[in-house]
Amino acid sequence: MAFLQTGFPGLVVFEPNVFGDERGYFFESYNQQSFEKEGLQYNWIQENQSSSTYAVIRGLHFQKGIHAQAKLVRCLSGVILDVVVDLRKDSPTFKQVYAVELIAEQKNALLVPSGFAHGFSVLSETAEVLYKCDNFYNKESEGGLLYNDSSLNIDWKIPAGKEIVSGKDQLNSSLANLKADSFF
Length: 184
Description:
Layout: E1 2-5, E2 12-15, E3 19-21, E4 24-26, H1 32-37, E5 46-53, E6 56-63, E7 71-77, E8 79-86, E9 97-103, E10 109-112, E11 116-122, E12 126-133, E13 142-144, E14 164-165, H2 167-170
Parallel strand pairs: 6-14
Antiparallel strand pairs: 1-2, 2-10, 3-4, 5-12, 6-11, 6-13, 7-10, 7-12, 8-9, 8-11
């Protein structure tokens, strides 16, 4: 198993060892002991799955305060561009963006600590995404960053005008207009 550091404290790309033969493949998508050896201790209590078509952008979402969530994100089919924005005030990467392609065939995953806004775009015809959370969703604590905030300058790898974004996500706040309680 490989744990690749991203330059953002606590944000790690996980690449499992995949064992394949004529029957197919096997890999450990999560092993608590392996993660703990890397200093990554989480108690996953909720798991979510989504299916989306090409050009869908979901996010950027986060949970505030005591309802903040860490996530372990994996693409089960297709390809997504997984994007996070560091909202941790004391982090050396505060307000910076990190993006990585999660590719079903590669079986890679992104571990996102609490304190990040998270979203993704679908780069393949369709994609299924599965992510574990270490805290339950709480509607009153949800927050969001505008996917096309010019200060973030995110290249979602979707041609301009082709993006499919929910009405709710189009109403998210710009980074400049985020309320103080949205930062960690």
